Amino acid sequence: MSEHVAWFGSGAHTVAVALPFELDALLADWAALRVPMARHLPEAFQRDEWAYLISFLEDANLRGAFVQAFGAPTSAGDAKRLVRPAGDVAVWLPNNVSLLGPLVLILLSITGNALRLKGGSRSADLTGAFLDFAREHARAGVLRDLLADSVRFEVFDREDARNAEWAATARSRIVFGSDGAADAIESLPHPAASTGFAFTDRRSEAWIEPALLTDERVDTLIKVFAIYGQAGCTSPRRVVLVGGDDADARALRDRMLARWEGVRKGRAAANVASANVMARQWAAALGWDAVLCPDHAAVLATGAPELEPFDAPMGLPIVAASIERTLETLPSNLQTIGHVLRDPSSPAWLERVARCGAKRFVPLGRMHHFGPVWDGVDFWRQTFEEIEVDA
Amino acid sequence: MTRLLDSPPYAPRDDALFLAELTNLTQRHLAGCPEYARMWPSWTPGALEQLPFVHVGVFKHVDLVTRDAELVHQRTLESSSTSGTGASKIALDAASSALQGKSSRAILADFVGDAQRPLVILDSVQSLRRRGGVSARVAAALSLQPFADGMHFALRDAADPTSMKWDEVLALLDAHDALLVYGFTWILWQAWGSAVPDEVRVALAGKRIHFVHSGGWKKLEAAKVERATFDAALLGGLSDASRVVDYYGLVEQVGVVFPLCEEGFRHAPAWGDVLVRDAHTLESLVDAPGQLQLMNLLALGAPYHNVLTEDLGRIVPGACPCGRGSRRFELIGRVPKAEVRGCANV
Description:
B: Rossmann fold, 6-stranded mixed β-sheet
């Protein structure tokens, strides 16, 4: 039931958003959850992950989804458009993901749609762990009621009958995973008027002008890479020093090495350390100039963009190339370009970005920031339906 | 060719000679295998711990071959790839194969004796018939060929441990007092340890059987079968001279196997050695668990003479009560796998 209205936009673009809760109250409840979160780190989460979740719950960040979709908040006015939650949302999460589940849960919870999330059957259950925490620690009010009544999280495998049941009843289907997983869900019978969103395998890069590399930006690069290594769609699979040369690449590698221990705390797991020893040798065999980070936490390798790639969970190739060469060697499934560029909003850069197929072109430090538009799709906005108003 | 291979496998050794020979072999590989040379661009000869190794995983991704006018490469040995991450490929050459055969014969003879007897292999004959390559399972079985006066493949279907040709086993038992039986650990348990028909059990009574198995305990641990149960099931009713020999080996160390001694340890032969390293620093450890590094003087055709494994072990100081004089170690298991998390679409 949509009983509360929040207003956005201005003039002819004023939008009334009807929600089953008072938006300010819900956002305040999410923000209040940050207090117990700051006091207690659940065992399932790493410190970096938990810190990012805390920042994600800021009122301004969550309200930003509405602003991005409907315009700046305003007082009640002469709305020409009324939007309301379109109906149940079902989300299929992949295995081996970190924060995606909790982030999707939070972001979709504020749409007013009932939410069902399926966790990966072979991965750590961060979504369930976060939901349990939130249900236990949310203060009495809108959020606690919403999590109790409108959010379901279940873990089952691809053969389970609930896949078909969810597809048949959801107004929106959101699938994160492989092409095969997305195809399997979309092939299930579903209502003709429902909408499906598939977010499949993507790769990202960091593009950096060597002259702009301060120590702070080197630290940012370490953080952005090290949190997921090669396992994240938003992680840089390679660093391109645009317009630089081999000496620039080696210099960046050496600065990352020197600063690594100051930025990254805690030891890599023994199997990761061992895999990195292997990856360094593999990369070297292929012609990369590869070195191990302290405690074998990662492999940093410099070389020409044409070198055969090596595959390592914590391996980062650093190449120097002209922008033309960079564009020629991009993956076909490019998602995010994290940039450290002098003038990234210039027409020249925007033209290149439009041409290269990237879905996101964001500052280096924002590569992992999840939002209501993903892979170029305004999925969050499309969980609402619009009512034409001509009063 | 190493002189050490002429000595008894577990006799006291001239360590300086071993180091000199391994250093020489390393230099041959560096000269003949450019990929290996690129891994170790600034190595200079030094102590055993400083000799350049190859991580076992590299063999899954890079075709390492040492080119040398004296070497004739014949075929490729492939690992069983049970982890789903691809198979290791080891380039075998004629000269190394001769050394490896001699090595495994000497090592295994120390545990099962060198008498000739029928060899029953828990595999199917079709496994032999692959062109250009040979599986780890078949290679392990063939290492016992020197002790065999005949080879008998006992499975109708290599993938089905219950497809035993018990009639042929019965015929062998009727004609011989001793048998040598080889199988991967899990297959030996399923085919023989837990499923011997009554008439075979009767025929086995009092016979002298040496069971040799390899391949690890992972599946048996999952099935909660302990070593004592395993051995007792195999040895029940047999002659007291019967034995179960569990050996550790990997395709990346073909020719060098590490049978479990009577005291529960494994010993490096005179022509091999073992180190244990810390995963995070590669520091060489003694009496502390770490990654096993295995070395041998037999690998001429590719740089698998010095391999850092993903198996965990511990060098045990002091002399072994079993009487074998070489370095001993305890095999602990595999490096534990920890999940690597991604952010989204992986």
